[in-house]
């Protein structure tokens, strides 16, 4: 079987069955709007849209990718349709790249939903779009592979959601999305620099508000390193747990 055709067929199947479904498209719109509305109400109507935009974008990617991938892989594993994919004459790495590419695209699209809404409210000139897009893509890849790691670590869909929240909710408060890391208690600040989302959110702040605190090159290396490590650990666990 042509590897490119196999990759494309698996990707298109997932796009049709999961990512292009109306409930998932609406999730990608409702989630960032809900967060923006929450900050609007909290600020009494005087919200710094540009200031919260990097955090809302990062959060939209994190929740969109981890939710979708952790649930879809676990669901297919539970229904035994994933075992049929394992019989395909392609490498496990290519198979998992095909399974995760849809979630990466989903996360990237999710990231630009709040940007679209913000463009109707504020002037978005001056944004370094090259760094912004690089940050969005790397956050989407890292978050997707985190979702893969979670999916491979559990056996039930509800366990995937619970395990996802174990990572996601600490990241909301520790990664500098809405609360500066320097404002956190001293004993929590080292934890912030262990989490990959810290580096992605810093790239977005640098590109949108020019106030990043971490070197772009360090952020790039950390995010690429996390992506490779999560993918390698996940495929190792699939070979160990799911292939006999």
Automatic annotation (TrEMBL):
It is found in: Cell membrane; Membrane. The keyword Cell membrane applies. Pfam families: ABC2_membrane. It comes from the Bacteria. GO terms for molecular function: ABC-type transporter activity. Keywords: Cell membrane, Membrane, Transmembrane, Transmembrane helix, Transport. It is a multi-pass membrane protein. This is Transport permease protein. It comes from Isachenkonia alkalipeptolytica.
């Amino acid at each position: 079987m042509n590897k490119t055709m196999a990759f494309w067929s698996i990707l298109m199947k997932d796009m049709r069955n999961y990512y292009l479904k109306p409930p998932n498209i609406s999730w990608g719109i409702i989630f960032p709007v809900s967060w923006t509305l929450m900050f609007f109400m909290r600020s009494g109507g005087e919200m710094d849209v540009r200031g919260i935009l990097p955090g809302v974008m990062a959060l939209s990617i994190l929740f969109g990718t981890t939710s979708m991938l952790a649930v879809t892989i676990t669901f297919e594993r539970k229904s035994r349709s994933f075992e049929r994919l394992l019989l395909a004459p392609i490498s496990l790495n290519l198979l998992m790249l095909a399974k995760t590419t849809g979630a990466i695209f989903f996360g990237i699209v999710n990231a630009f939903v709040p940007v679209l809404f913000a463009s109707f409210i504020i002037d978005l000139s001056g944004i370094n779009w090259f760094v912004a897009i690089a940050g969005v893509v790397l956050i989407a890849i890292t978050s997707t592979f985190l979702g893969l790691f979670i999916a491979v670590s559990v056996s039930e869909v509800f366990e995937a959601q619970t395990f996802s929240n174990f990572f996601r909710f600490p990241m909301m408060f520790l990664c500098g999305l809405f609360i500066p890391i320097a404002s956190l208690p001293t004993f929590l600040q080292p934890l912030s620099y262990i989490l990959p989302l810290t580096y992605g959110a810093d790239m977005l702040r640098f590109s949108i508000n020019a106030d990043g605190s971490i070197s772009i090159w360090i952020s790039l290396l950390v995010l690429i390193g996390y992506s490779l490590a999560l993918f390698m650990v996940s495929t190792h666990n699939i070979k160990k747990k799911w292939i006999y």
